[in-house]
Please model this.
Amino acid sequence: MPSPFPGMDPYLEGYLWSDVHSALANKIRQVLVPQLRPRYTARLEIYLVEDNAPETEVGILYPDVKVLQVRAASTGALHSNQSGAIATTPAQLTLPVLQPVEVRVPTVEIRDTALNVLVTCIEILSPVNKREPGLTGYRQKRQRLYQAGVNLIELDLLRRGSRPFNHPRLPSVPYLIELTRAQSGMVDVWTLGLQDRLPVIPVPLRQPDPDVPLDLTAVLNAIYDEAAYDLSIDYRVTPPPPPLSESDALWLENLLAPLRG
Model:
């Protein structure tokens, strides 16, 4: 069963996201390599990021994280210190200290085959990239890539979090795709709603080599089918946070009505 959505499926933004992220990176590489050879190739780079605020993703990305542990206390029980002079009142709750979660973030790197030099980086944003402290670190990485003369493609297919690229002319839309060509001083932006197909974007290489196309809708549809995500998604419930706008919620309700009976 294909996804009922024409473009990005918001139900993929929850606990399935880690699998979706990895599958997207792998499929993008698979699609690009035949178009790149023999002068270029695509490699998967996995870097580790510590999520120091996992509580913000509990119930969304980390459904099994144990957030709260309640210790039952006897009503009216008092604890005394060693001298027995002062009695203390037992706490109503005992909460565990949440430990950082190690997140594996895959990215696609296009390199020339002669010198193995990085030419273009395709970043699929993770929730940890879109809030602090990871947001600052990711913005620093963007700057390093630009200064190194690397083309950067960013796929922001998550509605929650802050955009790493800020501009007053950016509209408030669910999804963004951005292309920063090396040393251009400009960013090409594709703004996307729930009703939009994902675009076919250009993947730049070194001059004078032409761009190669990347059909993101075809990539997303392929991984949805290969991973059988429809077996894991309950379209009768609301999608993961944040809440949809009123117009998007109405459109979604009409779209999913046949699946909800």
